[in-house]
Amino acid sequence: MNRRAFLKLAGSAAAMAVLPRFALGAGKPSRKLNFVFILADDLGWSDLGCFGSDLHETPNIDRLALQSERFTDAYAAASVCSPTRASILTGKYPARLHITTWYEASANPPLNHRLIPPVTVGNLPHKQVTIAEVLKKAGYLTAHVGKWHLGDAEHYPETQGFDINIGGTYSGAPNTYFYPYSGTGAFGDDKFRYVPHLELGKDGEYLTDRLTDEALKIVDAVKDGPFYLNMDYHTVHTPIEGKEELIEYYRKKIKPDMRHRNPVYAAMVHTLDENVGRLLARLDKLGIAERTVVFFFSDNGGLAGRYRGKTVTDNHPLRSGKGSLYEGGTRVPLIVRWPGVTKAGSICSQPVSSIDFYPTILEMAGLSGDPQHNADMDGISFVSLLKDPGARLKRDTLYWHWPHYYFVNPRIGPASSIRQGDWKLIEYFEDNHVELYNLAEDIGEKDNLAEKMPKKAEHLRKLLHSWRKAVDAQMPTPNPRYKSRAGK
Known about the structure:
Helix content: 25-40%
Radius of gyration: 22 Å
Strand content: 15-25%
Number of domains: 1
Number of helices: 14
CATH class: Alpha Beta
């Protein structure tokens, strides 16, 4: 048996072994809060009904929003997946972690552009104390279901504080959403692109449904808690594949004046919503919804490019999408339900970031965490906003750093950005030009005010430079061969 096969078998056995241990210990329900963190992949800010989609039907998530607090200005700490996921688990900016691109690209920067991106960290370092490790130490059952994308087998969820790992590998997406989720598909004949611990499936089975099946087994077994469930769906990441009956339903529903016009993508969003509904219904059935905090979030903005010749999604009114530091790449939907605390149907417009989940969960759970880890944590708790949507955080500035090129659209090049209050500045590294926007008046980032307001632009640029220095942000370097190649 080779090492990969052994790890696969060992992981499956470990998952089966942990559940009975916690289930047998069940007795009186814990008074501690449970946490269910639902993370969608590549879901755009306006892809949900409750965030303004004109095509997608998301009744379950919309209902959750009506029971919860909805954030209009929530951000992923990066415009691509792995860095945001690392920020959620650690409470730190991707630039500080040196995890600023997805796992597969971290060690192999492209060499055919004006700048050479830095070689970055691909494996989430074990020296970082994840929120799962803190909760596990406090007696929580910790489970990860779905996408991981934060390192090789020596850095899988089991090594980062999770008792259970169903589906998490180094890979960022399956070759197909239909069982067995491997083989020849969107990413070619990739024998190592698979979703582990889902081996006993059946023809026609859909990945989003199966991952929820596995999560429900875990919740059933540990219902007396306390537990922390990382429910990380692959949906709606490529490959863009949906169930045929849903595709046909949305194909008939599309009208010429709609912004969302991809029936396959709409089918994927529909199935995501159905499965969020299944998970929430199980919490209700088990009688544990009132002591379970639910987060719903996305790891970056929607993919505004094309897949197999068709535009994937439209992040209107936001500009651009995944990979970009415009709002369409980083602003994402966030819904939080904390029974007895959040006011049903409330809306908060204070900017929050994925770096903030770690300290927020710590405060909710009444835990202090690891002092050494906390010493350079970037996030702050937004519990005060959950108690009062009109409150203000003791922070008015957020930062992003993307020293890379986005392969889907190489025109989206290396840059950093800062948001302070309603003002946002993006600095591009190829030519050092900046763009300045007032998001309160121009959410679509159409009117660049940098030349009209040079003092404001320079002030934000200096803050951005100081922050990059403080977190030891990696920078791209000039490509000495670029001119000679371009001249051929």
